[in-house]
Amino acid sequence: MSIPGQAVSLEQQIAQWRSYLGRRQAIHAVDLVELEDHLREQIAALGAAGLADDEAFLVAVKRMGDLDALSREFAREHSERLWKQLVVPRSESGGSAIPWLDAMVAFGLAVAAAVLVKLPALFGLRLDTDADVYARNASLFVLPLLTGYFAWKRRLSPAIVRWLPLGFVAALLLANAYPFAKGGDTGILAALHLPIALWLVVGIAYAGGRWSQVAGRMDFVRFSGELFIYYTLIGFGGAVLMAFTAMVFAAIGIEVEPFFQSWLLPCGAAGAVLVASWLVEAKQSVIENMAPVLTQLFTPLFAAALIAFLGAWLWTGRGVDIERNVLIGFDLLLVVVVCLLLYSISARDRHAAPGFFDVMRIVLVVSALLADAVALSAIAARISEFGFSPNRVAALGENVILLVNLAGSAVLYLRFLRGRALFSDLERWQTNYLPVYAGWGALVAVVFPPAFGYL
Amino acid sequence: MEISKDLMAASSTPIVLAILAEADSYGYAILKRVRELSRGHMEWTDGMLYPVLHRLERLGHIEARWEVAESGRRRRYYRITPSGRDQLTLERRQWEAVDATLRGLWHLLARAAPALAR
Fold it and tell me: Is B28 near chain A, with CB under 8 Å?
């Protein structure tokens, strides 16, 4: 081989070594520069002593020592690196060119959401007396801005951006032009289901042109789960803040609760969605995702609880007590099970062989299906007695949608365990199902009110 | 003859500080100097020097700066600080105490059992 050919292969070898070492969490880019300088100097010295490039490389790497031990030593010295820093951007690591711009846009939009929440007050709508109007419009205070944030961040093509506002305009018309009866069930249903439908619009913006791909939709699923966790944490923080503020002001005889109820709580709740979304975006590559960790923890526990329920039901032979809310309760149970499944799927290495947790998930899904079947059969037997109220039809429809999802998942999962299907088939099934939820949400919001006389 | 790992770890601080007390230096050159001075008896694993340097930097015994070497690559040079010199004096006293103790013992052993004290 000629000299240039050798030089290239040495550079390639060094580059490979560098990227291998760079994957270690405890070893930062600056350390890589330092270690690489060392390696190159060593190679040069060995070369001067008469070794060929590849021999010199091998010896130099060997002298550098075992990489696991080395990264352990670095981790011992720099233990803070294992706790990756969240909000503070690392200047040395490069990454996005202007991290603060992103943060500023997100916080600007959060303020805008807070202002939007107070906008109806200009039209004489009060939060305490017109709560139903606020509830129906709740998603419209926040989601258009969130969609805008992702449209900006992902540099969405105009062809997509053009269509996104349509959903929000339609929702705005629906929420305010339908003659809802005050305090009626269909109004509450619309308020609950509009966000589900509009979340799809956010997802299309989030995926940034990758919505048609399984991976793009799966990223949106991950984002949604992390957002939920961050939002909950921010909510806890906000509650602590408010409690202490109320306490110190009460100590000097000033009542701040009215201010909380009309300003801090609604504006904070709206703005926090954007702040939480930005946090998820910012830390996406920074720390381990939380949702999969929690699902891993709770999948066996939920499975155990459901099996205990089924066992007790069989053993005692008790009938399911058909209360008003039992169907909604079982709907929520299925939602939890779908989430547990979805988030464990989202974190699973799709090439890994089936293992303990896969069996655990199947047990969870099958026991949830059985538990739901028990409840459904009890309800079906007496549905004619109860009549078809909008709430009951919505709850029943949701139950069917979730049941179909879980049944499909169970079949695909079993096929995967027996080596008849790929894990990605299961992923595709779950991500293809996302529009079904949105479609059902839109159906309930759009069709139910006129169908049930806006009551 | 191999020097044990514990002894290597214990002696790394005074050795690095003493080499830097001679002149500012960088990782590869420090290792080369150790190899020369020990006549090859002390073979540090190259990579392990860097966590040691970083620890001394965190403790304030040495400070680092980036320079561009003649090769055109960025290189991290280390310099001993006043606190590092104090530490070196302290370490030196400790090692001299250990050394004096051992010397005394070798001397006694040589008289008691000449065969053992070689």
Answer: yes
Q: Domain of A86?
A: 10-93
Q: Tell me if A37 and B47 make a contact (CB, 8 A cut-off).
A: no
Inter-chain touch B54–A77, beta carbons under 8 Å: yes
Let me know: does A59 contact A46? Beta carbons within 8 Å: yes
Residues across chain A: 455
What count of other Cβ atoms lies within 10 Å of the Cβ of residue B83? Answer: 13
Please report whether residue A255 resides in a domain. yes
In whole angstroms, give the CA distance from residue A148 to residue A150: 5
Which residues are CB-contacts of A204 (< 8 A; sequence separation ≥ 6)? Answer: A160, A164, A211
B5 at A interface, C-beta within 8 A: no
Instruction: Tell which residue, A18, A22, A26, A24, has the closest CA to residue A61.
Output: A18
Domain count, chain A: 3
What is the residue whose two structure tokens read 């309800």?
A379
Min Cα separation B82/chain A (Å): 22
Q: How far is A30 from chain B (nearest CA, A)?
A: 9
Going residue by residue through chain A (455 aa), what tens digit of pLDDT does each one get? 444 445 568 888 888 888 888 877 778 888 888 899 999 999 999 999 998 888 899 899 888 888 888 888 887 777 666 655 444 444 333 344 456 788 889 999 999 999 998 888 888 777 777 888 888 888 999 999 999 999 998 888 888 888 889 999 999 998 888 888 887 888 888 999 999 999 999 999 998 888 888 888 988 988 898 899 899 999 999 999 999 999 999 999 888 888 888 888 889 999 999 999 998 887 765 555 777 788 888 999 999 999 998 898 888 877 766 666 777 888 888 889 999 888 888 877 767 777 888 888 899 999 999 988 887 887 777 676 767 788 888 888 888 999 999 999 999 988 888 888 888 888 889 999 999 999 999 999 999 888 888 87
In chain A, what residues touch B55 (CB-CB under 8 Å)? 77
* CA-based nearest distance B92→chain A, Å: 24
pTM: 0.68
Question: Could you give the CA distance from residue A167 to residue A170 in angstroms, rounded to a whole number?
Answer: 5
B45, A65: Cβ pair inside 8 Å?
yes
B5-117, CATH topology level: Arc Repressor Mutant, subunit A (1.10.10)
